[in-house]
Amino acid sequence: xxxxxxxxxxxxxxxxxxxxxxxxxxxxxxxxxxxxxxxxxxxxxxxxxxxxxxxxxxxxxxxxxxxxxxxxxxxxxxxxxxxxxxxxxxxxxxxxxxxxxxxxxxxxxxxxxxxxxxxxxxxxxxxxxxxxxxxxxxxxxxxxxxxxxxxxxxxxxxxxxxxxxxxxxxxxxxxxxxx
Amino acid sequence: xxxxxxxxxxxxxxxxxxxxxxxxxxxxxxxxxxxxxxxxxxxxxxxxxxxxxxxxxxxxxxxxxxxxxxxxxxxxxxxxxxxxxxxxxxxxxxxxxxxxxxxxxxxxxxxxxxxxxxxxxxxxxxxxxxxxxxxxxxxxxxxxxxxxxxxxxxxxxxxxxxxxxxxxxxxxxxxxxxxxxxxxxxxxxxxxxxxxxxxxxxxxxxxxxxxxxxxxxxxxxxxxxxxxxxxxxxxxxxxxxxxxxxxxxxxxxxxxxxxxxxxxxxxxxxxxxxxxxxxxxxxxxxxxxxxxxxxxxxxxxxx
Amino acid sequence: xxxxxxxxxxxxxxxxxxxxxxxxxxxxxxxxxxxxxxxxxxxxxxxxxxxxxxxxxxxxxxxxxxxxxxxxxxxxxxxxxxxxxxxxxxxxxxxxxxxxxxxxxxxxxxxxxxxxxxxxxxxxxxxxxxxxxxxxxxxxxxxxxxxxxxxxxxxxxxxxxxxxxxxxxxxxxxxxxxxxxxxxxxxxxxxxxxxxxxxxxxxxxxxxxxxxxxxxxxxxxxxxxxxxxxxxxxxxxxxxxxxxxxxxxxxxxxxxxxxxxxxxxxxxxxxxxxxxxxxxxxxxxxxxxxxxxxxxxxxxxxxxxxxxxxxxxxxxxxxxxxxxxxxxxxxxxxxxxxxxxxxxxxxxxxxxxxxxxxxxxxxxxxxxxxxxxxxxxxxxxxxxxxxxxxxxxxxxxxxxxxxxxxxxxxxxxxxxxxxxxxxxxxxxxxxxxxxxxxxxxxxxxxxxxxxxxxxxxxxxxxxxxxxxxxxxxxxxxxxxxxxxxxxxxxxxxxxxxxxxxxxxxxxxxxxxxxxxxxxxxxxxxxxxxxxxxxxxxxxxxxxxxxxxxxxxxxxxxxxxxxxxxxxxxxxxxxxxxxxxxxxxxxxxxxxxxxxxxxxxxxxxxxxxxx
Lengths: 179, 303, 610
What we know:
The complex is a heterotrimer. In chain A, 42% of the residues lie in helices and 11% in strands. Chain A is α/β, with parallel strands linked by helices. In chain A, strand 4 (87-91), helix 4 and strand 5 (119-121) form a beta-alpha-beta unit. The mean pLDDT of chain A is 87. By secondary structure, chain B is mainly α. Helix content of chain B is 73%, strand content 1%. In chain B, helix 3 (65-82) runs parallel beside helix 10 (216-241), helix 5 (123-154) packs antiparallel against helix 8 (178-192) and helix 8 packs antiparallel against helix 13. The relative contact order of chain B is 0.16.
């Protein structure tokens, strides 16, 4: 089983790395670097990366910039709506260590505590060349079979959930109309 | 008798494989052509294969029985229709591949996808399906009237018979009925769901419409269905108006020419709203289709 | 088989059931259901053999003629099938003695009509069923008298027209029997032929619900009790098909009008009738797409399909005749199945407005399956029987080269995808409303007749040769052409197809896609409220069910079109104004006006008589 399984997983990883679909989830100021990356000058589609409209269809969730607590709730919900195998790319320094909003009461500082991040792109904000090289690094990481954030989220779910509740209070906003 | 069944099964499998491989490759090349029109490189031409197989390896969610069954009906109906399209000298059911059967079997595919999309419970999907069904009324009418003229003139509505008649006569229906050929070409763009008639997908407006809740294998199966539906519709046009082909390679060449013309046209046009699309189809294409049929029935007569 | 015995039994059963239901309602209804099933089985199995002809003399000159030949058997089987399945279906619904009396009268009238052999018998029995159905429509809702009056008015137009035709025939030809009139009418002057044809055509259009006499169907269906709608749409309107078949095919109307100008080989009178059928298809389809109530939607679908039958039986020719007859069968089954499914849903949820429901497929899956097969048949998709009749009609249109009628036929077929999908999406799919959590599946006594109709639809879709051979017998007895059909292949002059092959290929396609589906990873089931809405959280299901005005962009295209109902209401307003004018002039309260009128009349009389 293991040899066949490993070969099949290798082929699957090769397929996944060469056809990544990105969710149009562009909140935060880093999103402004995405249109140049997608369009004709720094064509992202030649790497096989294309935009997809809903989390159900997407593979990559691109967190572009700072995350307020309100947005973090929706990010967690969208991440859980995505289907495995899925990858998160933390885009910009705000996801690494808070960036220029490190001392704000409304934003989070380290994204990895709440959702598993596979790749960080430092910069404020990273230029399209940096984004493309970052995606190339993500692709080789998937090829090697090391981009397993989704598996970690399932295994260490309690840890992630306790971090989320500590920061947000509640992840699924309660229904104000019916209470 | 037994050999006939074996030959039919083998040619059916061959046709299905050819349809799938060729169409998905052409879709990849079309992406490259669109990219070059937009002055960039595009993905490699085998990109669509990777997309389909990657989708089939992902996990997925389901919203209930009708969600699954609709997809099966969509892909099943489309696969069934592929068997009725003759491709050059590869005709699985010569003589009994009636065009009306093809068109209505294709409708099973649409109905299955519609049921499955609305069964997901997302209002975006229902909006997309409403638009798709309304648009279908737009593009089917001129097409069906033109092919009525074709059938009346040749006295048969079987695809393989029409192909052999056109090859024997030496003139294609596109030269015999040029107005009808152009109207059918414009209808074909609507059938394929390419710009300017792709309002029911509309990624930025309604979150890709019917596809909104599909993931993993559902999306993969829908992409296969889309590729096979493209093969069926363009194959229908090539067989009806461009004489099919004496051999498989001639058919595939004509297929390529028609497909790339459509790709080049749609890469440069924005999309219509759905009522603009219906009004467009019911104005000049409908008028020209009536003109063509009246010419065929009263002037050209039966062959 | 003994026609008179069956007819007499049906007629006397009506007051009998009324008396039984005064004692115990359920016993009467069960007796009625059992009686209808017995009659159906008797007609279907014993009626196909041989022909018989019976005369009942009332006075010295007045005779009721009944006959039993393939035509009568075909129509009787269809009508009794619908009535017997509905009779079983309505057992759990609300019962009343008046309803069972009227239902039995309707059945007796319909039976007499389909077995008739002359116009007078046909008319009398048809009127019995029309009047009974009129009273039946006003049984359930209080506000339905307006709709019933519309039905009565348009039925009266048809009835008076047919009465005129009967008296005219009797005075000119001396007979009103079908076969004698068919023989004698060829030698009459063209004026007589045209008058009789047009008068009978008006009756056909009125009773079938075709343009321009289609406005009654919508109101009648929406206010009729749920159990009566299948009979109205699947049984009573098909009597119009019977009359149309007699006057268009049995009478040699194509020979008779052959001296008139021909259009593509069809006499202009028949073409005019076919054109009315075509307009009816388009009007029915466009109006059906705009409806928000499921029963009104299916009522307009009946208008559209009646147009198909009128079109097919008017253009004549082997394939159109066979297609039209088969369409009578298909539409009766499909329309009855659709109405029964909606009635089952209404029985459970107490409403037929589609936007108030949703997501009922998890609660009522079998009703959904019945409705799905019925709409696939109405849309004309293989492998159901609806495709067979549509294919035959298309072949005739191709053979004759009729572009405008073909436009109407294609419009009706493709537009029907739109309007049959709307109740499917509105009622069965989408989000489930919290107040419908307690809804259960319809009881077995309601499911069994629906399932029977569904199985018949699929059976005649996969093996249409069964039904087409019966139709061939009919057309052969008239002297027309027959459709070449083998075990599963139908051959027309301009094409052929094999139904078993199509079904097999479809099943193979399903098998291949099932294979791909199974090989991939198993899907995780999620709730309907776990949906993509831009990352937000969903709690209220009724806000996310999109079905009200689903085709709003399409409706906007047709908003400015003239509407028959508006024209009729404005005409009635004008007549009222004219009446008010007369009243103001001649019946004024003011006595001086009377004195003035008297003086004017006297002066005028003296001046004239001087």
